[in-house]
Fold this protein.
Amino acid sequence: MYITRLELKNFRNYESLEADFDEKINLILGNNAQGKTNLIESIYMTSIGRSFRTAKDSEVIMFGRDEALIKVNAEKKFSDTEVEIRIKGASKKSVKKDGIPLKKSSELLENIMIVIFSPEDMKIVKDEPEKRRKFIDRELCQISPKYYDSLLNYKKILAQRNAYLKEESIDPSLLDLWDSQLAGYGANIITGRKKFIESISGFSAKIHRGITAGGEELIIEYEPDVRVTENPEDQKMFFYEEIKKAFDSDMRNRSTTRGPHKDDISFFVNGINMRSFGSQGQQRTCALSLKLAELDLIKNETGEDAILLLDDVMSELDGTRQEYLIKTLKDNQLFITTTDLDERILGEFKDAKIFNIYQGKFR
């Protein structure tokens, strides 16, 4: 799978842009604040329908303009596809796939598969649990529309329940309506995350052994807030029971204290918890292994080679990790943003297509 063409209008600092890309390597060069990450953001939005930088679609519209447009054409293994996204004002977004208007964003999933790796991802091992949950959700949403819908509904119901818990008077029977729905959608999320972590741990371990020349063994473990079971109905029941047990705690905190919104994952190298005791180099190797494992997981689940966006991340990696990354990614289309043209990268990617960006324009 690879993107052949991109068109932007009034997107961030791009008033108008049209670009044709190489099916393998695309180097995006430019100083800071010229639009490199904006370009990466626009490409990413065509895979999942929303930005990885903001929850507000209106923020991608160029200042002083009313509407933004993103359009991409991509070649897949057995077909081609076109995605068009128009964002108008603060609340109106329209999405078309192959010329057909979509009723909801989840219809865009499983179409253009993209993995993004940025300097922020380097911190995923040691940062707060929310970052790790976002990582899981972002990747699972791409390959599972069911998970996407469950997550969307879970968040909506969780927000309603939390708002109600702040009221002066609480009706337990009304609260129970939210509890039952929360347990149903939450059980789907827990089941999806368990399977995802088991798969990504296996792929990550293999990559990690390659980077460390067999010297280190990586294991990624799911840390669910609610006990996990294999049976979906039992999972719903377990979660529902946990919500009921947490009623007094919820009332004291005025928020929902149990559920997958409290989940986490841990990284162990040779049995040592990397969050607490790993060096910065080890934590970065874990992060790199994790991101590359996403490509293997997507290929395994969909049969497609995902597109990899490397947003200013090469400078964060030492020579060993850069070399492994470069030599591993032979089947994937790459978009690499950087402020400087590294000789190592240029030497490995002699046929790369190079784009120089200055103030939202190619030059």
